[in-house]
Every structure is written in C-alpha cells, then in structure tokens.
Amino acid sequence: MESTGNTRSQVLSYVYQGLIILFIFLCLTFIVGTVYGVFFNDTPEENVQRGVSQVSGEEHIFTGIGRVRIPTSDSEPGMVIIFVSFVYYPEDRPFSEELALRVGDFRTIIREYLGSFHIAELQQLGEESLKTELLRRLNAVLRLGQIEVLYFTDFMVVG
Length: 159
Description:
Helices cover 55% and strands 19% of the residues. The protein is of the alpha+beta class and 159 residues long. Strands 1, 2, 3, 4 and 5 form a five-stranded antiparallel β-sheet that branches. The longest helix is centred in the N-terminal third of the chain and has 38 residues, at 2-39. The N and C termini lie far apart (89 Å).
C-alpha cells in the first residue's frame, strides 16, 4: 500500500514541478515581450502612421487612404482609380491620431464625391478642381487640424 501512495505523491510532485516550470516560462516570456515592446518596437506615434513615408526632416506624406476604385454614375459605369496623399507633421500627435481614425471617413467622402459624376463630367472638371473640392470636404470632418494640399499619385478615369 505504501508503494502506491508513494508513487502517487511522486507523480503529483512531478506535475507540480512541471506547472511551476511552465509558470516561470510564461512569466519570463511576458517580461521579455514587454521589454522588447517598450524598447525595440514601434512607438505609438509610428503605429498611427503606418501609411506614411518621410519626405524631409519633419514632414511626412500620409498615404493611409490607399488606392480607391470608384464606379461612376453613368448608365454603364466607368471606373475612377485614385490614390490620395497629403503632407502632415507627425509631431502633432492629436492630429496624426485623428487622421488615422478618419481613414474610413476619407474613403467614403472620396467615393461619394467622385462616384456622383459621369465620366465626361470628371474629364471636364479636371484634376485641380476635384482636388480643391475634395480638400474642402476632407477638412470639413477634421477637428484637430487641417490638410493643406492634396496630391493624386494615381488618377485615372477608365470607361
């Protein structure tokens, strides 16, 4: 009888030791991950600016809106393909965060505005007047800053 009780206590001892080793491993993993995240990972500002490329010292180009494909309002719709970007200053953290949060709104504004035109109207209006109106509409939803100039990296009307 003592041998089964002794064997059982040895098994439980191994289980407890295994659990303690697992607990220590998880704690070390958590500590190492935290240290790595604090010292070697992107800063919160860089996380906000994922769609950004640096232009010069303090200026950055916000490219987070990405390429947008929009059907025109023609009876047989054409397609507008556009990539909108603009300069902003990342040291203005509240505005940088607002830009990141508004990407969905920006895409919706661009879709609704450009999608309301026929192909002929888009060609007649021209890129500069479209930029001016889009800039006005995008700035209308911003509260913590304003976009100064819009750039169309891609702007094609296919139809």
